[in-house]
Amino acid sequence: MFDELRATPEVLYGAAIAFVVVVLLTPAVGGMARLLGAVDRPDARRLNRRPIPRLGGLAIFLGILVPALAFLDLSSESRGVLLGAAVATVVGAVDDFRGLSPPTKLAGQFVAASIPPMFGVWIDHFTFPLLGVVDLPAWIGVPLSMLFIVAVMNMVNFLDGLDGLAAGVCGIAGVTYAILALSLGKADPAILAAIVAGACLGFLRHNFFPARIFMGDSGALCLGFILAAVSIQGLLKTASTVVLLLPLLVLAVPIIDTSFVVARRLKHNRPIYTADRSHLHHRFINIGFSQRRAALTMWLWCASLAAAALATRFVPFREGGEWHPLETIVVLAIGICALAFSIYVVYLLEIVKLANPRIRRREREDEEARDRMTA
User: Fold this and answer.
1) What are phi and psi of 127, to 5 degrees?
2) Domain of residue 274, residue span
3) How many domains would you assign to the chain?
4) Per-residue pLDDT tens for 136-156?
5) How far apart are CA 86 and CA 62, in angstroms?
């Protein structure tokens, strides 16, 4: 992997330029958002206690676009990803500024997700264990790719409810994807993933608690779109069986959060697109975590899962049909640590809650408030 990094210095250059552009541009975007009235005002669901401008996604997108135009070879696939990211950002920006109905917003997301397949970025084959390479016809692969992209966009959007949380998780995912794509010889996806990581790190300069700006839907949809497209372009379309589930492992935190929230809303007969305080980060706040501590805990959780993905890829625990005992122990140890962290989170959010009547009462009050709002 280090040889690939030396051969592709654009990975580091792109990340550095994205970082600088976003750091410098974000305050101007925040000022523009205030002038336009694109501001999140405190309410019963939100955690901010003062008006905070959104539209930070515009700075993130421009911070990604500038180094992408400089360092990507702008092949057909790269142009499709950038064009789709632009559409996703516009859809999110319109929602941040004017507000879109859920069906209209979802339609806009599918329009954005339809662009990469037009340029060749779609899942045309999978490599399954035991079965080997399985080719997918376009009538299956294209809709599957679009659904995956839209799903990841919404997962990141759901996760964006705590200062710095979504930017940190997407930054960790960007670094992990860049390393994995480099190891597979996928230069353009690696560069773009590194650029995403640099942009996220630059945005955290202004977005970590106490946040001075939010990324809004424009940022969440942009980041979710690019991470999904990069995982298709650089990881899923390979002949390596071991990378089949790695993108899902890296994104396990937003996947778990979204799954939990959707299941909870269906259980209480509420539309899945209604906003509430049932996300994992809200539950951390309910048990007494500060915003900073909750974000750091979820970052560490995401990082532990990313480490497990990287260990699975880089530690040669099985080669030529033979298992290597020492390497297998190393991979298992890293995987156990990631699993232990996940169990620790479940303990915090479920066992601690059950042992504390005040927390249970607060959650019941939240449920009653949501029921009144939807009645």
Assistant:
1) -115, 105
2) 2-374
3) 1
4) 888 988 999 999 999 999 999
5) 9
